[in-house]
Specification:
Length: about 90
Amino acid sequence: MRKSGIGYTGNTRYDGWMAKVMVSLPDDLLERIDARARRRRATRSGFLRELAERELASEEEREWEEIEELLGEPVPLGGDATSLIRRDRRSH
């Protein structure tokens, strides 16, 4: 069983344990990634993690927007739910 911990590698802070992955990228893309990470004063890993988190959050937001679009505007059913419940309780 792993214990949670905080560690540092270079200027990247790790909360807990992190998996290491091997990814194949074209050289020109890797050069662009490294250049952008340097401009942000980030590590390559930190920069790629930030991009992945941002993309996943953006995708989840798009999914919710699609669901809301499919559902449409709420249909007003009229009345105040609290008042209706109280009135019903008093009638018994």
